[in-house]
Design a protein that fits this description.
By secondary structure, the chain is mainly alpha-helical. It has one domain (7-181): Cytochrome p450 (Orthogonal Bundle). The protein is 69% helix and 0% strand. It has ten helices and no strands. α3 (38-55) runs antiparallel to α10 (165-181), α5 crosses α10 (165-181) and α7 packs across α10. The chain is globular, with a radius of gyration of 19 Å. The two termini are 25 Å apart.
Length: 182
C-alpha cells in the first residue's frame, strides 16, 4: 500500500499539476477584461488534476468511457454527497424507516447504482485496454493502474489483504468527491 502514497508517486505527478496550473493561468489571462467565476475555474482545474492522477484522463474525457456527458457524472457525484449529508427521519424514528417518507433510500439506491455502473465501466475499460496491449503488469502510471496491479498481485492475498472491484470503485468515488470538496 505504500505504492499509493509516497513522495516518488507525488513527484511522478508534478508535470500534471504544472500543466493544470498553466491551464488555469491561461484561462484567467484569456478572460482578463471580463468578470470571472474563479471558483468554477479552480474547481475545473482541481477536478482535472485529480482525474488525471487517478485515472490518467481529464474529467471531460471520461464521457467517452462512461457513455455519459461530464455533467451527468458530476451530477451523480454531487447527488451522492448531498444524500450523505441529509438528515433522514427514518434514522431518528426507525419505525418510519420502511416508509421512506423523504425518498432518501430510493434516491440513494438510484444514485449509487448509477455511480457503481460508471466506475465499473471505467475499471473494465482500463482492464480491456490493458489486455489489448498485451497484458503483463500494469504500468502504474496513475492510481487506477496501481490499484489494478494490487488487485491482481496474489502476494497480498496470502497476507489476508485482498482488493476487490468494489474497493477500487469506492476509492475512485472518494477521488470524485474530493473534486467537489475543493
Amino acid at each position: 500500500m505504500t505504492k499509493l502514497f509516497n513522495t516518488q508517486r507525488l513527484q511522478h505527478f508534478k508535470p500534471i499539476r504544472g500543466e493544470e496550473m498553466r491551464g488555469l493561468v491561461h484561462s484567467v489571462w484569456q478572460d482578463i477584461p471580463k468578470a470571472q467565476d474563479m471558483r468554477t475555474k479552480l474547481q475545473v482545474r482541481a477536478c482535472n488534476n485529480i482525474s488525471r492522477m487517478a485515472l490518467g484522463k481529464n474529467f471531460d474525457d471520461l464521457s467517452v468511457i462512461t457513455n455519459m456527458n461530464g455533467l451527468e457524472l458530476v451530477g451523480a457525484i454531487r447527488e451522492s454527497l448531498d444524500l450523505i449529508s441529509i438528515s433522514n427521519i427514518g434514522d431518528f424514528l426507525p419505525a418510519l424507516k420502511f416508509l421512506d417518507i423523504q425518498r432518501v433510500q430510493r434516491r440513494t439506491n438510484d444514485t449509487f447504482e448509477t455511480l457503481d455502473t460508471i466506475f465499473q465501466r471505467i475499471v473494465d475499460n482500463r482492464r480491456d485496454s490493458h489486455a489489448n496491449i498485451g497484458g503483463g503488469s500494469y504500468g502504474e502510471n496513475d492510481l487506477l493502474d496501481t490499484l489494478l496491479s494490487l488487485h491482481e498481485d496474489k502476494r497480498h492475498i496470502s497476507k489476508g489483504i485482498s482488493l476487490t472491484d468494489n474497493n477500487i470503485k469506492a476509492i475512485l468515488w472518494v477521488c470524485g468527491c474530493i473534486c467537489f470538496l475543493c
